[in-house]
Amino acid sequence: MSRLDRFGFVFEGLFRELHANMSSAARTQPAAAAKRVLIVEDELMIRMLLVDMVGELGYTIAAEAAQIEEALEAARNTDFDIAILDVNLNGRPISPVADALVARGRPFIFVTGYADPAVAELHANRPVLKKPFHLDNLKLTLQEALGNGTAGPHSVPPQRTGEG
Q1: DSSP letter at 35?
Q2: Which of 1, 115, 119, 137 makes a 20 to 30 Å CA pair with 94?
Q3: DSSP 8-state assignment for residue 83
Q4: Distance set, CA 70 to CA 8, 22, 41, 51, 79 (Å)
Q5: Whether 94 contacts 72, CB under 8 Å
Q6: Is the pLDDT of residue 159 over 50?
Q7: Positive or negative, the Cα torsion across 152, 117, 92, 59?
Q8: What is the pLDDT of residue 33?
Q9: By the 8 A CB rule, do 90 and 42 touch?
Q10: Three-class SS state of 159
Q11: 107 with 151: CB under 8 angstroms?
C-alpha cells in the first residue's frame, strides 16, 4: 500500500468517526429553529429598525404589516411564533389584532411611544415595551413572552421601559 493509499485510508476513517460523532450529537441536541416574528408597525423607519433588531437577535421575520387589515390577515393566516404589535396603527387601536392573536393562542408584545399605553383591559397583562428601547430590552421582553407562556390569559410579565 502506497503512502497516498494509507493517507486516504486514515483520512476516510477519521471522516467516518467525525461524521458518526456529529450525527450522534445532532440526535441528542437538535438545532433550534429560529423563532418567527410578525411585526406590526405603521411607521416605516421604526418597522425597518425592528426588522433589523429582531434579525440581530436571531429571529426570522414571518410577516410585516402597517395597517390593521394587513395585520389581521397576517395574524389569522401567517405561521409565526410571536408578534410585536404597535399599540396604535395610523390612529386606530391594535385591539382587533390582539384579539385575533389571543384566539389563535399566539404570544405577543406591545410596543408604544405613548406615556400611558392605551392597551385594552383584556390585554393589559401582555408585556409592553416603551419606545425608544434598547436591543437588550427587546431581547428580554421577547424571551419572557415566549418563555413565560404569555399566550395564556393570566400571566403578568413586568412592563419594560426603554431605559437601558
Answers
A1: P
A2: 137
A3: E
A4: 59, 43, 11, 17, 14
A5: no
A6: no
A7: negative
A8: 74
A9: yes
A10: coil
A11: yes
Residues comprising the chain, all counted: 164
Nearest-10 Cα torsion for 7, 9, 13, 15: 60
- pLDDT for the residue 26: 37
Residue 140's Cβ-count burial label (10 Å; 0-12, 13-18, 19+) is middle
Tell me the three state secondary structure of residue 76: helix
What are the residue ranges spanned by the domains of the chain? 1-31, 36-147
For 153, the grid coordinates are: 390569559
Of 98, 106, 87, 83, give the one whose Cα is nearest residue 152: 106
Determine how many CB atoms are found less than 10 A away from the CB of residue 7: 10
With b meaning 16 or more CB within 10 Å and e meaning fewer, what string describes 66-84? bebebbbebbeeeebbbbb
Q: What angle do CA 117, 120, 126 make, to 5 degrees?
A: 75
Task: Of 94, 107, 109, 103, give the one whose Cα is nearest residue 149.
Answer: 107
CA of residue 154 relative to chain centroid, distance: 21
Name the pTM for this structure.
0.70
Residue 14 above 60 pLDDT? Answer: no
Q: Who has greater pLDDT, 9 or 65? A: 65
HSE-CB at 35 with a 13 A cutoff on CA atoms is 20
